[in-house]
Structure formats: C-alpha cells, structure tokens
Design goal:
2 strands; mainly alpha; two-stranded antiparallel sheet
Length: about 180
C-alpha cells in the first residue's frame, strides 16, 4: 500500500497496522492479539464523538441507487438465509384462517366463563383457554366451545407441569380443578 505523501514516509515505516502485523508475522511469526469488545466499543464512542465535534468527517450517506444495488445483491440464492429445499421448513402452527378461528374460540370460551379462572375463581388477570381434548389429537373438537376451560396463565402452566401436554383427559382436568367443573 502506498503512503499519502512524503511527510508520512518520513514519519512511518508502514502504511497501516495491518501492514505492521503482516511484517511481524512474516519476520517473527507473531500474530497480533484480538481486540476486546470493550476496547472496540470505546473506540467507536470516541470516533462518534470526534465526528460530532467536526474533528473528522462523517461518512457519506448511501444514495438510493447504492442501497438498491446492495438489496439486489442479497436476493434469492445470494441471501444468507436462502433455503434450497423449502419442504424442510417447520410449518407454523396457525395459518390465517386458523388464527381467526382460534381467537374467536378463545373469546367465546372466556365469555362463557365470565372471564373467570375456573380453578381459582379469580376474575380477570392473565387468562388463557385450555383445550380439554388436545389440540393436535382432536382436530374436529379444536374450536368447540365445550372443549375449552378458562384458566389463569400460572394455573394453566401448573396443570401441564403435572399432567404433561399430550393425552390429557376430562378426568385429569376434573381432578386438577377439585371436581368444580361439570362436563357435559
């Protein structure tokens, strides 16, 4: 790399730190120590302060064309998150039509239970609706109002901690609620 002017040549032997490290590595086999995150962060703060004070110029803002070119370079197969075989992707639990159905189901169950936890009889709070019959095992019963019970978030978590997430039964829920809840 060439130095800018004669003043730099008289003052320095190398044009940059990377050239110094290349020289030391070649001559003595020395590898420079890595910069710690704290030192790097401090250097960045000093640089931004110097820019604010006008001691060093700010880098130019990228133009609209430059941003567009950069965006075009990262599309499709060039994007770092590109997946060749999309069938291997995990499918989301709900699609758009299911989201509407489950949100109306939750609202209807909570209205039926008067926004009251069926285990503690506490009104309001962080309420969730528990499926009596598992969501995944009984797809036909997913959105039936009779298949839901309103519970507080902590109580719901406690139920699943005791009985797990699969193969839950009415008997387990009835036992958990202390026989309070009558099933049809």
């Amino acid at each position: 790399m060439e130095l800018n002017n004669s003043r730099d040549i008289k003052r320095k032997k190398f044009c940059s730190h990377s050239c110094v490290y290349k020289y030391l590595n070649k001559k003595y086999g020395l590898i420079p120590p890595r910069q710690t995150p704290e030192v790097s962060e401090r250097a960045g703060k000093i640089r931004s302060l110097r820019m604010k004070l006008g001691l060093i110029p700010k880098p130019p803002e990228p133009t609209k064309e430059t941003r567009k070119k950069a965006g075009l370079k990262m599309r499709g197969k060039n994007h770092w998150k590109w997946i060749k075989d999309r069938t291997k992707l995990k499918k989301s639990r709900f699609n758009c039509s299911e989201r509407f159905a489950i949100s109306t189901w939750r609202k209807d169950v909570m209205e039926r239970d008067n926004y009251t936890c069926q285990a503690t009889n506490k009104i309001g709070g962080k309420l969730e609706v528990h499926h009596i019959f598992n969501y995944s095992d009984y797809p036909k019963k997913r959105y039936e109002i009779e298949n839901g019970v309103t519970l507080l978030k902590d109580v719901h978590r406690q139920f699943h901690k005791i009985y797990g997430f699969r193969n839950n039964t009415k008997e387990q829920l009835s036992k958990f609620l202390g026989g309070k809840y009558a099933f049809s």
